[in-house]
Description:
Elements: H1 3-8, H2 11-44, H3 55-85
Helix pairs in contact: 2-3
Amino acid sequence: MEPADFEALPEEDKHRMSTMIDQLQVRDSLKMYNSLVERCFGHCVESFRRKTLDKQEETCVRRCAEKYLKHSMRVSMRFAELNQGSPTPD
């Protein structure tokens, strides 16, 4: 949908569309967060010896999260670049 098409919609439809987009963004953010937690926790935490992470586990989780977020950001940027350059199917 082109921005001009969105502007041509009635206000009620614009509001509905905006709400739907917001919900999808929240859902996608939660999925990414859950995936990050599962991957990094599963990779870095080996036992439940105490309530807090030891230094090695904490470092591993931090590095894992940084890599995951950098990778996700790069994929998103690349997708946006590709999406801008390709014609939209009509």
